[in-house]
Design a protein that fits this description.
The chain is an alpha/beta fold. The protein has 15 helices and 13 strands.
Length: about 400
């Protein structure tokens, strides 16, 4: 996500102020307390996954294989493959499906991550052809996938759809969409950067969710809290083909153990926390929705993250959040940006530190911050247009 700090002479100063004040804050409403490099290295050194006498990895062996096996087990798939980035993972798996199916055409929603946040890599780098079953701001339906003319290499569904505030289809809609892909004889790929967080909303275990798809991609640094990286999961043949593409993309990194250890630690410690984060997201959303000029979407949230819109300028809110944090020790919702329609938007990410906030406290702090933002809006700075990833 963005920290809402604009570029320019004042940018680094405000960014540093936000980082410093967040480290010593009494409490945080959204996201997590920033850590230093030394603290992160110390955590890696203390990990049980570094306590063994095994050698460090070399080009993806050793501990990398342990992580891949763990991901496959959690998702109920035969195999999984580590990638240094999610963008690379998506390209590799879709190229593998395209080679199998003999067509570059891939059914994706126009608001899906590959279409908006990857510099059109699907088309420019992989020479795949996006086909949009619908242009509506919602998940495509089974009937819309049925109606797509011509051959398709795969259908992609993003669970949840980030650009709409982390929106999920209903379980019945998802199952029907997967059935439509099977009727066409094409694979369904889940773009699942936040798939770990969908279980509470669907009321289903992860293997049951993944079983309706032919391949899955997951992030290993978002909810998992790792340093970086992603994984894809699927059948052994697909994984072998994707491994070839990983090599072609330059993804066979010589040493990867810091990111691998952090991912294993996160899978151990954080997956069981997701239901509590998701439940509390509803309370935070309730507190935010009580504020004039604030709108939450979706309401109630589907996962432990959701989007918030405000009538005030993004930069004024960011300045107000920082000043209030420095005065009170409370970091309200931060990281506001301006979307393409000129609206101020922020992403609420519920983690352990947010659990101490009641809905009433979210509202009270919001009134204080937004009143300050109204005053600051009389002396505006250029609004940030930095997008979070």
């Amino acid at each position: 996500m963005t920290d809402g700090v604009q570029n320019g002479p004042a940018g680094p100063t405000r960014r540093q102020r936000l980082w410093t004040a967040s480290r010593s804050a009494r409490r945080l409403l959204s996201n997590e307390r920033p850590a230093t490099a030394a603290e992160q290295l110390a955590a890696l050194a203390a990990s049980p996954h570094t306590a063994t006498a095994e050698p460090v990895d070399t080009y993806g062996d050793g501990i990398v294989g342990r992580l891949e096996a763990r991901v496959a087990e959690l998702l109920g798939t035969p195999s999984a493959l580590w990638f240094p980035t999610g963008v690379m993972a998506q390209q590799a798996v879709l190229l593998a499906w395209a080679a199998r199916e003999g067509t570059p055409r891939v059914a994706v929603h126009p608001l899906q991550h590959t279409q908006l946040q990857e510099e059109d890599a699907l088309r420019e780098l992989s020479r795949l052809e996006p086909v949009h079953p619908t242009l509506e701001p919602r998940h495509p339906t089974a009937a819309e996938l049925d109606a797509v003319p011509g051959p398709l290499a795969a259908a992609v569904i993003e669970l949840p759809l980030q650009e709409l505030g982390y929106v999920l289809p209903t379980w019945e809609e998802y199952v029907a969409f997967a059935a439509a892909a099977r009727r066409r004889g094409i694979p369904l790929h889940i773009d699942g950067a936040r798939l770990w967080e969908t279980g509470p909303a669907f009321g289903r275990p992860l293997p049951e969710i993944a079983a309706h798809a032919s391949s899955v991609s997951v992030s290993l640094y978002k909810a998992v809290g790792g340093l970086s990286g992603a994984a894809i999961a699927g059948d052994p043949g697909l994984i072998a083909e994707a491994r070839t593409w990983r090599t072609r993309f330059g993804g066979d990194v010589y040493r990867q153990f810091p990111a691998i250890v952090a991912a294993l630690d996160g899978l151990d410690a954080r997956l069981d926390r997701i239901p509590a984060w998701t439940r509390h997201a509803a309370a935070v959303a309730e507190g935010l929705s009580a504020l004039p000029g604030i709108r939450v979407t979706p309401d109630p949230p589907h996962i432990d993250e959701f989007w918030v819109y405000a009538d005030l300028p993004a930069d004024a809110i960011n300045r107000a959040v920082l000043e209030d944090l420095e005065e009170t020790g409370e970091r309200w919702l931060h990281g506001w940006w301006t979307d393409g329609t000129g609206r101020a938007v922020a992403e609420a990410t519920i983690r352990d530190e947010a659990l101490a906030w009641t809905a009433a406290e979210v509202t009270a702090a919001g009134r204080r911050v937004l009143a300050r933002a109204e005053r600051l809006a009389q002396h505006p700075h250029p609004a940030p247009r930095v997008r979070r990833k």
